[in-house]
Amino acid sequence: MSLNTITIKLPLYRPTLVKQDMYRAMRSHFSQASNQALLYLQEVPVRKATELDRLLRSIPLPSTLLQEARKQAVSRYQDWRKHANTKGFPSFRANISILFDNQNWRLRFDQGHLKIGIPTIEGHLTIDKYVPVSANDYALFWVNYLLTGEMDPTSKHYKPSYKGISKPKKGNVQLFERKGKWYFAFTLSFQLQESPKTNKAIGVDRGLRLIAVAADADTGRYLTFNGKRIGHIRRRYARLRREIQQAKNMKALKRLEHKERRMMQYWNHVMAKSIVQFASVSGASIINWKT
């Protein structure tokens, strides 16, 4: 069995101004609690979790959120201690994501609408405090799997590798704002049965306009990678290289070459990983590269 984890991001559906103001107040308090916990650890590095929770109790947040703020502060502080010679003392930004552990969030359908329930400064969670979210077909496929423990084999998102999948385990949650919109993102973990190795192969052709095309001859399924993105990156770096060469700045030229190499290695990694996943879903153990 192999462990897999995915992240589902759900936009909040038209949250009221009152709700948004409440979330921003919670975010501010969560940032305050996280930074305050760091300062307490700076003063006394061996403080126990119970002592930190007691010191943070005056901040107006549910106790579960104060505990999450303390946990991430401890983690950030421990990381800083390992690299204290090269890093400044850490801090959390004001527009921090609000974190919830896997025991403190709920999903439910209410009259056909998907809603979330999380602890807030409104008090105890009740049905009327659930808020609606938007969900596309992909998100609904995984939400139904989470709520029922079963998958719809007729869905376009279903894959043969999901046969024999384990029951899902919900993970932690982030509530955050991006460009004026609020999102609820959670993780799901599940196990898949290892597919028996076969001699099946997929072919991968490489070109210029389409830098790679992976194809499964048995099913007719294919995966393509457009070369526009990489072409744009190469042209941009070629232009920068000419400008730096004209300026005769060899140090800057060296840095640019290293940056371009890292960028291309990243995209090659992304492409290779996608092709391996495509082969796995197709039940293939061999990848034939063609030029």
Radius of gyration: 24 Å
Note the total helix count.
6
Summarize the main sheet: 4 strands, antiparallel
Report the end-to-end length measured between terminal Cα atoms: 35 Å
- The shape, in one word, is globular
Structural class: alpha+beta
Mean pLDDT: 89
Please give the order of strands in the largest beta sheet: 1-7-6-2
Q: Could you give the count of β-strands? A: 11
H/E element sequence: EHHHEEEEHEEEEEHHE
List low-confidence stretches: none
Q: Strand portion, in percent?
A: 15-25%
The percentage helix is 40-55%
For this entry, give a set of tags.
alpha+beta; about 290 residues
Task: Give an overview of the whole structure.
A four-stranded antiparallel β-sheet has the order 1-7-6-2. Strands 10-9-8-11 form a four-stranded mixed β-sheet. It has a three-stranded antiparallel β-sheet with strand order 3-4-5, with no helix packed on it. It is an alpha+beta fold. 41% of the residues lie in helices and 23% in strands. The two termini are 35 Å apart. A hairpin with a 4-residue loop joins strand 8 (201-205) and strand 9.
Quick structural gist:
This protein is α+β, with helices and mostly antiparallel strands. It is built from 6 helices and 11 strands. It has helices at 17-43, 49-55, 63-82, 137-148, 228-247, 250-281; strands spanning 2-11, 98-100, 106-110, 113-117, 131-132, 169-178, 181-192, 201-205, 210-215, 222-226, 286-290.
List the SSEs and their pairings.
Layout: E1 2-11, H1 17-43, H2 49-55, H3 63-82, E2 98-100, E3 106-110, E4 113-117, E5 131-132, H4 137-148, E6 169-178, E7 181-192, E8 201-205, E9 210-215, E10 222-226, H5 228-247, H6 250-281, E11 286-290
Parallel strand pairs: 8-11
Antiparallel strand pairs: 1-7, 2-6, 3-4, 4-5, 6-7, 8-9, 9-10
Helix pairs in contact: 1-3, 5-6
